[in-house]
């Protein structure tokens, strides 16, 4: 593994791979308008906004535009949207889809973040591989895992919990560069751990401490998700595909064994730790990963990700130094990853083809230049002022 991600935990590679961020306010100084982008197609829509593929007319570049829902009628929703904006504009790393700048429409509800366009999400990518009856060879798995761990190491070193890691939130470029996306549930954290909402993370990738309603958690919840994703890279099947929270925790206990205060100190003190679960022996999870698909070192790494005790769970930095990544075959170069047309590219018409403008509540074309400039100025000042107020969220 001699590509740029080999030792991404070292200071040297950090300096080469991660450009220092400008002061927080400078991300807003361009004051560009939505009219400078040509709509191509809608990519996805989540709880906190929709994502569109568009062409930056000035740079003649395909980008992703995420519309942030700034509905200030719902205070909790509004604060969550502002948290996402702050994180998107704060983080910068080659394996993270971060915000480049804000662009604004005709009113205060039309706020878009310009981001790199990355065509594939790993959920669709793995579904396509499964239909072709293909599996990732070890070198490809290590390439994906190395990049994913580099992204998580950067997030955690910058005090950010993702809280929703899953294949559909991990993107892959045509050149094999992996990027973590969707920070709608992400939070900044500190020490000592604060209390947070326990019902985070998509069910199949949710750590057992969250399923047992612990409201004090930290980076280990992301590392549990990494373990589930790692197993899915190997088999192309979810490791614990629960149908409900109860079914999910039962599947985990069946695979890993029912925890005790010995295997998980403090287990009985969790909010539902006194509930009696069926007693399952340890070690069945290895039967779910055929030995010919993962080496002993690989199984050891997976086991470290799936430890019950969050304190003992493998960190991203430690995982990057695990023997699994040093054994043969090593990780391939990202540009050697296979690729094919992406669903997110719509009908793949030329980006210069005539298309409607990006969706807005009112057509920007209908506004006079003077009226538009005034509206843009008001919206821009509104967003800047609000974000500065919530800079400590």
Structural key phrases:
Transferase(Phosphotransferase), domain 1, globular, alpha+beta, 6-stranded mixed β-sheet, serine/threonine-protein kinase, 393 residues, single chain
Brief write-up:
This protein is α+β, with helices and mostly antiparallel strands and 393 residues long.
Tell me what the structure shows.
This protein is α+β, with helices and mostly antiparallel strands. It has 11 helices and 11 strands. The protein has a 6-stranded mixed β-sheet, covered by helices on one side. It has a 3-stranded antiparallel β-sheet with strand order 7-9-10. Strands 8-11 form a two-stranded antiparallel ribbon. It starts with 10 loop residues before the first helix and ends with a helix. The relative contact order is 0.16. It is an enzyme of class 2 (transferase). It holds the Pfam family Pkinase. This is cyclin-dependent kinase. It catalyses: L-threonyl-[protein] + ATP = O-phospho-L-threonyl-[protein] + ADP + H(+); L-seryl-[protein] + ATP = O-phospho-L-seryl-[protein] + ADP + H(+).
How are the secondary structure elements laid out?
Elements: H1 11-17, E1 32-33, E2 37-46, E3 49-56, E4 61-68, H2 75-90, E5 99-104, E6 111-116, E7 120-121, H3 122-131, H4 138-157, E8 160-161, E9 170-172, E10 178-180, E11 187-188, H5 208-211, H6 220-235, H7 245-256, H8 285-288, H9 296-305, H10 316-320, H11 369-389
Parallel strand pairs: 1-5
Antiparallel strand pairs: 2-3, 3-4, 4-6, 5-6, 7-9, 8-11, 9-10
Helix pairs in contact: 4-6, 6-9
Protein name: cyclin-dependent kinase
Enzyme class: transferase
Keywords: ATP-binding, Kinase, Nucleotide-binding, Serine/threonine-protein kinase, Transferase
């Amino acid at each position: 593994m001699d590509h740029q991600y080999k030792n991404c935990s070292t200071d040297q590679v950090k300096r080469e791979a991660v450009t220092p961020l400008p002061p927080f306010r400078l991300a807003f100084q361009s004051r560009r308008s939505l009219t400078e982008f040509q709509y191509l197609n809608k990519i996805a829509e989540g709880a906190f906004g929709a994502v569109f593929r568009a062409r930056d007319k000035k740079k003649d570049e395909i980008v992703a535009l995420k519309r942030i829902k700034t509905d200030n009628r719902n205070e909790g929703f509004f604060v969550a949207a502002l948290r996402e904006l702050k994180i998107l504009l704060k983080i910068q790393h080659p394996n993270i889809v971060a915000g480049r700048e804000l662009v604004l429409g005709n009113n205060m509800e039309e706020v878009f973040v310009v981001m790199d366009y990355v065509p594939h999400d790993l959920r669709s990518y793995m579904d396509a591989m499964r239909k072709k009856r293909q599996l990732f060879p070890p070198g490809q798995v290590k390439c994906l895992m190395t990049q994913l761990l580099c992204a998580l190491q950067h997030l955690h070193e910058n005090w950010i919990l993702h809280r929703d890691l899953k294949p559909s939130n991990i993107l892959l470029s045509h050149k094999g560069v992996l990027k973590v996306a969707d920070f709608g549930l992400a939070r900044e954290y500190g020490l000592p751990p604060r209390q947070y909402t326990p019902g985070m993370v998509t069910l199949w990738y949710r750590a057992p401490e969250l399923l047992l309603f612990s409201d004090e958690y930290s980076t280990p919840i992301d590392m549990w998700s990494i373990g589930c994703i790692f197993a899915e890279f190997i088999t192309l099947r979810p490791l614990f595909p629960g149908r409900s929270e109860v079914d999910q925790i039962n599947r985990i206990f069946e695979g890993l064994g029912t925890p005790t205060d010995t295997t998980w100190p403090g287990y009985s003190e969790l909010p539902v730790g006194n509930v009696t679960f069926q007693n399952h022996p340890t070690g069945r999870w290895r039967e779910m990963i055929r030995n010919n698909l993962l080496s002993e070192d690989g199984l050891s790494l997976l086991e470290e990700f799936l430890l019950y005790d969050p304190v003992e769970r493998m960190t991203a930095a430690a995982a990057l130094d695990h023997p699994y990544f040093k054994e043969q075959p090593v990780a391939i170069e990202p540009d050697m990853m296979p690729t094919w047309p992406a669903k997110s590219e719509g009908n793949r018409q030329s980006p210069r083809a005539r298309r409607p403008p990006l969706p807005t509540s009112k057509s920007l074309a209908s506004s006079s230049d003077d009226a538009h400039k005034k509206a843009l100025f008001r919206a821009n000042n509104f967003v800047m002022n609000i974000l500065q107020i919530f800079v400590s969220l």
